Every structure is written in C-alpha cells, then in structure tokens.
Amino acid sequence: MDVIQTINELRTRLKRERNSGNSISFISTMGALHAGHISLVLHGKGISDITVAGIFLNPSHFVEGEDYDKYPRTLEIDCSKLEASGCDIVFAPSVKEIYPLGLSYQATVEVPFLSERFCGKTRPHFFNAIATVVTKLLNIVQPDFALFGEKDFQQLAVCRRLVETLNIPTQVVGVPTVRDDNGLALSSRNGYLNEAEIEQASHLYQVLLNAKRKILEHSSNYSEIESEAIEALTRFGFTPDYFSFADALTLEPASDDTTNVVILCAVYLDSVRLIDNISFSK
Q: CA-to-CA distance for 129 and 135, rounded, in angstroms?
C-alpha cells in the first residue's frame, strides 16, 4: 500500500492505473478509522480495481467551539487498518496541500435546500464545507466510484446532488451503516464516550426502531410520533437536536404519500453530538 501526500504524486500514480484500464474507488475520511470505514474500503474493492482512501481532517468542517483541536489524529494506526483491509493507496495531504491559499481565499460549493435542513440548521457552515472539500477531492482523484456511509445520510444526499448537478463523472455509492452489537452506529466520536455512555447511547437506535414500527403499523401521524420520540430520548438522558421524517430520495418532509421514508435524528449526550437514521419502505 502506498501513502501519498501530494496532489501531483497521486495524479501521476492514478494516471498510470487508468492507462492500464483499472477502475478506481475513493473513500473520503477524516481519519480515526473504525469498522464502518473499513466496510467502505471492502465495498470499494468489490466494485473496482484500485481503492484509494483519503485521510484529511478538514478544518472548515469545524467552527469555534467544536472539536477540531481534540479530534483524534491516528494516521499510523489508520494506515495499518487500511493496509490490512487491502486498500491500495492512502491519500493523506496536509491542510496546505488542499488549501494552498488558505480558507479565506477558497472558492466554495453550496448545495441548496439539502444543506439547509436537519444538521444544516444548527451547523449552517457544515455542508458547504463538505460540498467544497468533496468536490476538490473528487477533482483530484477523479474516481469511477465514491463511497459514503449511510450513517451520514444527509451528507450522502448532498454528495449525490453535487455530483449530479456539477456533472462530475463519478458514481456515488451509499454503503449500509455498521453498528455495534447494541445497535449504536459506529462513529469516530464514539471514542469520546465512556463505557456507561456507550450503553446509554444505544437507546438512540431503539427509539428509531420504535418510530419505524409505529409508521409501519399504518400510522402517518408524524408529529405525534416525533413528540413521543423526543420525549423518549429526553428520558434516556439525551438532549435532542432534531428527530424528523423525510422522503429518503429527496429529503422533503414525509407525507401520507411518501413510500420511501428516512427518519433522521441528532442528539447530544453530554457534549458529544451523535447522529443516526433509519430508512425503509412502507
């Protein structure tokens, strides 16, 4: 496995792969890799010849008061995990490599509507940062496939929309969420939780499953189910940010006619922000 830190070296290497007729998958991460990230690599290996994993802790994801400074930086451990999974190339650029003029002079990408809902309400900077850095990385790597976990459902929708509307010749592939045995969705931020909090956090998935069950029992009273879910989350010790029902294809608010539903939620457990979702057909 090669670890590459510059755009020019990566492009030279990938040009050779394309000239040899090899297809390329790309997985964008911020490091602190867990089994969910590795599942993306394994999926990429199944659909392409060469798998590239990006490790870039993007500073524009964070604003003052968020956890950029304490976010885990574990490049050596991450590379060991990627090599064991059969990843071919790791692209681990510096901030200077990605933003040579600094963030103040960086052109930005905005995906309207999809970026303004759910997590975008309380973190209004977040999806512009994602859309911008993903566009940059896709232009650098030029992969045939870009793989994203379904745990970050809104991010997946934003990336699909930007690829579609900016005519980027990459197929965005969603990969199912990987969960602990207790149902907790794997996340790098789970590392901030102690053992008791991890058990407490597992109730988030149970609340999602309960809301899904109520909908499948032919109830479309979304506001009532939302209120019950928020009450349950509060009872379990969470501070809810949102608990919402949407069309899984468009992220428009769910209605009686919606057949593909996604339930999205975000909560705080102490100072740790957790997100999760569940999607299904009814």
A: 10
- 274 shares a domain with 215: yes
CA 275 – CA 149 distance, rounded (Å): 12
Sheet of 2-4: strands edge to edge?
2-4, 89-91, 50-55, 24-29, 145-149, 171-175
Q: List pLDDT tens digits, range 150-177.
A: 999 999 999 999 999 999 999 999 999 9
Query: Do 98 and 126 belong to one domain?
Result: yes
Pairwise CA distance, residues 96 & 111, whole Å: 25
For the chain, give the number of residues: 282
Q: How confident is the model at residue 111 (pLDDT cuts 50, 70, 90)?
A: very high
Among 144, 175, 206, the domain boundary falls at 175
32 with 126, same domain: the answer is: yes
Q: What CATH number has the domain bearing residue 160?
A: 3.40.50.620
What is the DSSP code string of 236-259?
A: TT-EEEEEEEEETTT-PBP-TT-S
Q: Phi then psi for 118, rounded to 5 degrees?
A: 50, -115
Query: In this structure, are residues 211 and 225 in contact, taking their beta carbons and an 8 Å threshold?
Result: yes
> Helix (H, G, I), strand (E, B), or coil: what is residue 176?
coil
List residues with catalytic annotation.
37
70 versus 233: the higher-pLDDT residue is: 233
Residue 70 DSSP SS3:
coil
Task: Tell me, yes or no, whether 12 and 124 share the same domain.
Answer: yes
Distance CA 174, CA 262 (A): 14
* Enclosing domain of residue 72: 2-175
